[in-house]
Design goal:
Layout (H helix, E strand, L loop, with lengths): L5 H28 L9 H23 L18 H6 L7
Length: 96
């Protein structure tokens, strides 16, 4: 089998080359678009976009299934279901 760590050097070199190629491609795209056309998203913006996309998917699913129930901060919230482990620790109240 040879040197146990022998494959790591080539793996690291392959990853470094791939990352370098990605940065070269990104730099080329920034040059074409122009730096003023490039915007970096914050984590909060990304999460807000993903949440919006997720809500839109659920609303479309509800419309398609005929069970349209609006979801959102200005709309009624749905009741969250507990994880099975929580059910064993805290059985639900049967108060309807």
């Amino acid at each position: 089998m040879g040197d146990p760590g022998g494959g790591r050097g080539t793996e690291a070199e392959r990853v470094a080359e791939l990352v370098g190629e990605l940065f070269d491609t990104l730099a080329a795209k920034v040059r074409v678009a122009g730096p003023e056309s490039v915007r970096v998203l914050t984590e909060e913006e990304l999460q807000r976009h993903q949440l919006s996309w997720f809500r839109a998917g659920w609303e479309e699913h509800a419309r398609a299934s005929g069970q349209e129930r609006p979801v959102g901060p200005d709309r009624p919230t749905a009741r969250l279901l507990p994880f099975p482990e929580r059910l064993r620790e805290h059985p639900p109240d049967d108060e309807g």
